[in-house]
Amino acid sequence: MILSLKELVEGYWASGQRFFVHLDSRKHGVQVPENLLGRPSVVLEWGAKLPIPITDFYVGEYGFGGVLTYKKLAFYTFVPFDAVFAVYDSSGKGRLISAALPEEVARTLVEEARAGETSGPHAKPLKNADGTLSLAVMRARKRRG
Questions:
Q1: Is the alpha carbon torsion for 35, 37, 38, 41 positive or negative?
Q2: Which of 22, 39, 49, 123 has the most C-beta neighbours closer than 10 Å?
Q3: In the chain, how many domains are there?
Q4: For residue 72, is pLDDT > 70?
């Protein structure tokens, strides 16, 4: 059974583990600090047990939100589901939503993967068996960036 994005986010939250959300902050309805708006790729860390707890986390029909802390400043953050293109937990398990991946992000991921992750003993596949971009490529990019 494939979980909906809503079910996936609810499951991560219920488990208490940290999870990471890659989103396109140019999408309608995204609420993040002004300096993050207009970017094709923003990564937010969520979780019930973060050092500064998110006490008002909520998941609705169209997205999820809560007060996150950015450089020690609290800001109400809302992420519409249609702005999300990847979500995964701290162990690296998750989902890449290829259809929602902004074109410039996909292009950059492919270039980075070809440059450093598609050859040698630790090569990671660029695409999954179904033709979608590998989530391992997203995780590697986050570690480097």
A1: positive
A2: 22
A3: 1
A4: yes
Range of the structural domain that residue 11 is part of: 5-144
- Name the residue type at position 2: I
Q: How far apart are CA 91 and CA 134, in angstroms?
A: 15
Residue 53 maps to which CATH number? Answer: 2.30.30.220
User: Distances from the Cα of 143 to the Cαs of 12, 15, 20, 81, 136, in angstroms?
Assistant: 20, 23, 12, 24, 11
Asked whether the predicted pLDDT for residue 140 surpasses 90, the reply is no
How remote is the C-alpha of 50 from its chain's centroid? 16
Question: pLDDT (tens digit, 9 = 90+) per residue, 40-70?
Answer: 999 999 998 888 889 999 999 999 999 999 9
pLDDT at 130: 47
Q: Is the dihedral of CA 14, 20, 24, 26 positive or negative?
A: positive
Nearest to 89 by CA among 135, 131, 127: 135
Using the predicted structure, report yes or no on whether residue 101 has a pLDDT greater than 70: yes
